[in-house]
Amino acid sequence: MLPAVGRTLKSSDYSITWAVIAGGGVNAASASYRAGMTVGQTATGEASSAAYHVSHGFWQAFESPCDCRPGDANNDGNKNVGDAVYLISYVFKGGAAPAPYVKCSGDANGDCSANVGDAVYVISYVFKGGAPPVNCETWLTNCGSPLRK
What's the domain count of the chain? Predict the structure, then answer.
């Protein structure tokens, strides 16, 4: 989401995963930007549009930092009773940790930890029509980054 016009951003307002498009000139594009024939320059100067503002930085290709599915403890792409069983095994029997991220993958309710409450939350979602597990963006807002902890 873009900030309101005229708002000054601080580094604590956002987290960006990035990679540099560098060296020798390239053509790259997405729905948000187009970089054409950048030739390994160290700074771009200032440029802006409705979608971005670059100030004395490198051209960057942005990707979402949300590569975790909260509540999908067993990392099978589904959020179901198997995740609740997986969490119970992890919490009470020393079973395998939620994957790929212990905290995010096992945290269905968005309280920033993977515990038996998340198993109950998933069971409520599956069998009682309870609220679905939080989405990655909500988890990231509530719990911060990095996800790999």
Answer: 2
